[in-house]
Amino acid sequence: MSMFIWLWLGAIVLFGVAEVVTESMISIWFVAGSLAGLFTCMSGWALGGLSPEATQVLVFAVVSALALVITRPLVRRFMTRPRIPTNSDRVVGMTAKVTEPVDNDRASGAVYVDGKTWTARSADGAVIPAGTQVKVQKIEGVKLLVQYSEKVEVRT
């Protein structure tokens, strides 16, 4: 049995295991290319003036690239999960009232918005005094990132 048959079988196993471990559809394309290289090796076919080994590597590269180009858009569509908004996402863009001074250096601050009190941090690092109206920029974990604005638009 040719050493290259073992090489291609090893490559199939290696890329297959890497795909199972990563689950990111990265190395599955190389499994297809390795299979093509194995079949080329077993057939003994050589392209033009190339050696059988060079032909196997070329077939591996071409089949891997074609598998990637042809199937990647389809796989991406099925692998991409849409972001599902939660109830807390609705506070983004709303106006909140600072109930405890927001100071990132002291890791303190709270705002009241949509009937709830949230831990808050300043989006731009500014200290925001209690009683100030702020706009919620985004949510990071359980904290709201807020920003003081001279002209706060009320969104309900």
Roughly what percent helix? 40-55%
Low-confidence blocks of residues: none
Give the biggest beta sheet: 5 strands, mixed, barrel
How far is it from the N-terminal to the C-terminal residue, by CA? 74 Å
Structural class: alpha+beta
Q: Count up the helices.
A: 3
Instruction: Output the helix-strand order.
Output: HHHEEEEE
**How do the strands line up in the largest sheet?**
1-2-3-5-4
Q: What amount of the residues lies in strands?
A: 15-25%
Bulk shape? rod-shaped
Radius of gyration: 29 Å
The residue-averaged pLDDT reads 87
Would you give an account of this structure?
This protein is 41% helix and 23% strand. It has 156 residues and is an alpha+beta fold. Strands 1-2-3-5-4 form a 5-stranded mixed barrel. Helix 1 packs antiparallel against helix 2 (28-43) and helix 2 (28-43) runs antiparallel to helix 3. The longest helix has 28 residues, at 52-79. It starts with a helix and ends in an 8-residue tail after the last strand. The relative contact order is 0.11. The model has no long low-confidence stretch (mean pLDDT 87).
Question: Which descriptors apply to this entry?
Answer:
5 strands, rod-shaped, 41% helix, alpha+beta, five-stranded mixed β-barrel, 156 residues
Write the layout of secondary structure elements.
Layout: H1 3-22, H2 28-43, H3 52-79, E1 95-103, E2 108-113, E3 116-122, E4 133-140, E5 143-148
Parallel strand pairs: 3-5
Antiparallel strand pairs: 1-2, 1-4, 2-3, 4-5
Helix pairs in contact: 1-2, 2-3
